[in-house]
Structures are given as C-alpha cells and as structure tokens.
Automatic annotation (TrEMBL):
Full protein name: ACO12 thioesterase
Classification via Pfam families: START (PF01852)
A Gene Ontology cellular-component term: cytoplasm
Gene Ontology MF terms in the entry: lipid binding
Segments forming domain START: 18-166
Length: 197
C-alpha cells in the first residue's frame, strides 16, 4: 500500500511535468490542454478559483462531494480508509449510449505541500480490491492516472489543475468534447469552480 500510494502521487507529478502540452481551448477562467503520446491521450484543465488553496484541497480530496459538481459521478462510497491520506472508493458513472453503466475502484492519495510554492496534490488511480469484485450490472473500467494539483496564488485564490490520462474506457465521454460537439469538459470545470467558490 505504501508503494501504491507513492507511485500514485509520483505518476501524477510525472504527468503534470511532461513537456509538449497543446492548448485546445481557453475561456475566461478555464484553460484546456491535451498531450498525446502513442495511444495515450492526456488532458489538463486549469481553473482559476477565488478560494484559498487549502479550502480547495479539502473539498476536492473528499470524493464523496464529487457528484455535487461532476455529473460523470453517479455514486461514490468509501470502501476502505487506508490512512488519513489514502482512501479507496467505489464510483459509478452513467452509461454512454448502448453501454452498461461503468464502475471504478480507485485509490485517492492526498498530500499537502512540503515546501512553499509546491502544490497540494490529490492523485487517483484504479486498484483491485478483493472486497469489490466486478459486478455484472456494471462495466468495470480503469483510471490509469488522474488527479488535481492546487497552487496557491494569494491568501484568497488558487489555480486548480485537473489531469487525466484517458483510456478507451473514458474515451466516449471525451470524444464528443474534443471534436467540439459537446462542452462537458468546460461545463464540468465551471461547475467545479462554482462548487469551490
């Protein structure tokens, strides 16, 4: 478990630090980038939020609050509180046309910054848990690497960066988005800002 949580944080830090992100859309307080490497598409959404960074961190690290702003989360329950900083959740997501609803078993690792100017980190990855085997009514899907980095701007505002490495399981939610026929990434980002503020 120690290794898993370390590699969870390390994978997100590595993804965030990759060079070669391409800006795809810019709104007033939301910017969207993509990064392609082989078959893996990564997404970065940067949001300017008018709350202190520690407040954003506490709201974003509790995934049970996620369905209040992210309509891709139908339900979310804690399966295991591994430690103060690590929890394993079971999440269900709505079906895309012609498919069963998806479900995920995810490890969420949260870290406060060790030094000034370092971000707060909330890292997410799929794990397997004997107590939560795949269920026939859901299509079990995988999150390779996702999460948030939260940078303090001043005492009352912060920059929230959301990252996600997109696999084929998550692709249907994004395909319409990047071709411009849906605005769900922007809509979700704006809902997230509204929720945090």
């Amino acid at each position: 478990q120690v290794y898993l949580s370390y590699s969870n944080i390390a994978a997100l830090t590595h993804l965030a630090g990759k060079p070669g992100w391409d800006t795809t859309k810019t709104l007033d307080n939301v910017k969207i980038w993509t990064h392609e490497e082989g078959a893996v598409l990564s997404l970065k959404v940067e949001m300017q939020v008018k709350v202190p960074s520690h407040v954003a961190f506490s709201l974003l690290s509790d995934f049970r609050l996620r369905q209040r702003w992210d309509r891709h989360f139908l339900t979310c329950e804690v399966l295991q509180a591994v430690s103060e900083e690590e929890k394993i959740y079971h999440v269900t997501a709505p079906p895309t046309t012609g498919h069963k609803p998806k479900d995920f078993v995810i490890l969420v690792s949260q870290r406060e910054p060790c030094r000034p100017r370092e971000p707060y980190t909330v890292a997410v990855r799929s794990v397997t848990l004997r107590a939560a085997p795949p269920r026939p009514e859901f299509c079990r899907s995988e999150i390779l690497c996702a999460g948030f980095q939260i940078y303090s701007q001043d005492s009352s505002s912060c920059t929230v960066c959301y990252f996600s490495q997109v696999t084929s399981g998550v692709m249907p939610y994004l395909a319409a988005n990047l071709t411009g026929s849906s605005n769900s990434i922007e809509d979700t980002a704006l809902e997230c800002i509204k929720f945090l503020e």
